[in-house]
Automatic annotation (TrEMBL), chain A:
Transmembrane segments: 21-48, 68-96, 116-134, 146-165, 243-263
Keywords associated with the record: Amino-acid transport, Cell membrane, Membrane, Transmembrane, Transmembrane helix, Transport
Entry annotated with the keyword Phosphoprotein: no
Phylogenetic classification of the source organism: Bacteria, Bacillati, Actinomycetota, Actinomycetes, Micromonosporales
Family, similarity comment: Belongs to the binding-protein-dependent transport system permease family. HisMQ subfamily.
NCBIfam families per record: HEQRo_perm_3TM
Protein name per the record: Amino acid ABC transporter permease
Residues of the ABC transmembrane type-1 domain: 72-264
Topological type in the membrane: Multi-pass membrane protein
Length: 279, 246
């Protein structure tokens, strides 16, 4: 089993090693150059001292961090609830849009109208309409503003996710349905056991990508009043007359998104590899 | 008659695919459908399985009209197995799960019972060790044999085979044909659309030549393939021989 590489192969290995060392050195030098240029460019700007004080003040950051973190916990909870419910709603709408037959016509029409209108409507307007419009009806048992805001996010994202799911359903080849039906499965059974599992797997990457977008958009709930990270930062800005709390909230949102983005990239890569291996 | 197809018509746009086509199949009989691409072989099989709606005529299965719009297609399909050219196994399920799906969900068998029956079949066709594998890990011939087992575990009265060897590499065709030959000796009633004239000759009790949406000529394989009456059948067979397929 022991194989001694030929002199030619040893030469090749030595050459490649040399190239690799050179690449690392070049990358380090180039990074240092770009980093220095950026630092000098920004810190050397005439207004840098003012900006540093009003956006990057460590004392203000430390002072308001606890409140912003407490607010962020609300964002996290909202994200989980909204993501699950928006996906459930999206899947339901997507399935309803595939129904056939005259009885299903109004259902189909409603589902289509819904996806068309809520994909066009800005989320901010939906939040205002839900959070301030619905309580105005003075109905018994109107839920809290927090829930109304969450509902606005869910119905808006549900419309996007419905389209993602629908694309997935349509990507499953009709011969799969034919095979399922030929075995005696009903349309519902064929959907449930054959079409949907394949559809959901295929659209996992765009679905997760929309979840990343959702994680920052849950911050818009602050417009309706609940104290989330953005609202807490806003209060901090008002009290300290310093923009640092916004930067703190921004950094926290990025940190919150990182794991989700990493998972999305990993799933996307895996899906792409599988696609290439399959052909 | 187990299957009676009477004056069935199917039109796509202004293209007449089946033109008052009639064909009877007796119990335990194996009928091979031959004919050029586009002669309506696949469409006929899809009509029998109610995947395609007929535009006229009737189809009876065991004396019951299955083209009656009041008949429940799901109930009809439980009695008819269909195997496709491209296997159409479900890629997200293992071979065993593919085979167990209909027995458990449609025929409401317990999963132990369905599993035992599936394993018995897989054992018989030499795929037992592939039970836990996903379809993309199987060769074409293995996938097609698994697809045939998937149709068989529902104990169909009638098995329809649509060009089941056409997508296979030549060296894999044999294993699938052997399996069909065994099904014939079990007494399974089969209608198979095929391009394998040699195989049709061996396994079929009757060969039907489809042309212009009709059964132009039918009879024992030796006669239809060896000494056809119709000039169009002769021409078709001459082309096949030229291509080296007989």
């Amino acid at each position: 089993m022991s194989h001694t590489p030929s002199t030619r192969q040893q030469e090749r290995i030595a050459y490649r090693r040399g190239r690799a060392v050179r690449s690392v050195l070049l990358a380090a030098a180039s990074t240092a150059a770009v980093g220095t240029a950026l630092t000098v460019g920004i810190t050397g700007a005439p207004g840098w001292e003012r900006v540093k004080e009003s956006f990057f003040d460590p004392e203000t950051a430390v002072e308001y961090l606890p409140e912003i973190l407490a607010g962020l916990w609300l964002n996290v909870k909202l994200l989980v609830v909204c993501a699950i419910l928006a996906m459930a709603l999206g899947l339901l709408i997507a399935v309803l849009r595939t129904l056939r037959g005259p009885v299903a016509f109004p259902v189909r029409a409603l589902a289509t109208t819904y996806t068309y209108s809520f994909r066009g409507l800005p989320l901010i307007i939906v939040i205002y309409l839900f959070a301030f419009g619905i309580p105005g009806l003075r109905l018994q048992g109107t839920p809290d503003v927090l829930w109304l805001g969450a509902a606005a996010i869910i119905v808006t994202y549900g419309a996007y996710l419905a389209e993602v799911f629908r694309a997935g359903i349509e990507s499953v080849h009709p011969s799969q349905i034919a095979a399922a039906r030929s075995l005696g499965l009903s349309y519902r059974q064929a959907m449930r056991h054959v079409v949907l599992p394949q559809a959901v797997r295929r659209v996992a990457p765009p679905l997760l990508n929309d979840t990343v977008a959702l994680q920052k958009d849950v911050g818009l709930i602050s417009l309706a009043g609940p104290i989330d990270a953005i609202r807490a930062a806003q209060i901090g800005v008002a009290q300290s007359a310093d923009f640092t709390p916004y930067v703190v909230a921004g950094v926290l949102f990025v940190l919150l998104a990182l794991p989700l983005i990493a998972v999305t990239d990993w799933v996307t890569l895996r899906a792409a590899r599988r696609q290439n291996a399959g052909s | 008659m187990l299957l009676a197809i009477d004056k069935v018509r199917k039109v796509f746009g202004d293209h007449v695919i089946l033109d008052d086509l009639s064909l009877d199949v007796a119990e335990h009989e194996v009928v091979a459908l031959i004919g050029a691409s586009g002669s309506g072989k696949s469409t006929l099989l899809r009509c029998v399985n109610l995947l395609t709606e007929v535009d006229d005529g009737t189809i009876h299965l065991d004396g019951e009209e299955i083209t009656d719009p009041r008949a429940d297609p799901d109930l009809v399909r439980r009695r008819i197995g269909l195997v496709f050219q491209s296997y159409n196994l479900f890629p997200h399920m293992t071979v065993l799960e593919n085979i167990m799906l209909a027995p458990v969900r449609v025929h409401r068998r317990s999963s132990e019972q369905a599993r035992a029956q599936a394993m018995q079949w897989l054992d018989r066709v030499g795929l037992a060790e592939k039970a836990g594998a996903y379809p993309d890990r199987l060769s074409g011939g293995q996938q097609q044999r698994a697809a045939i087992v998937r149709a068989l575990v529902n104990s169909p009265r009638l098995l329809l085979l649509d060009e089941v060897t056409s997508a296979l590499d030549p060296e894999l065709v044999g294993e699938v044909l052997t399996m069909i030959r065994e099904l014939k000796s079990d007494g399974m009633t089969m209608v198979l659309a095929t391009h394998e004239m040699g195989f049709a000759k061996q396994v079929a009790d009757r060969v039907a030549f489809l042309d212009g949406g009709r059964v132009l000529e039918q009879g024992p394989p030796e006669q239809v393939l060896g000494d056809p009456v119709e000039p169009r059948t002769r021409r078709f067979l001459a082309r096949i021989i030229e291509a080296g397929r007989l």
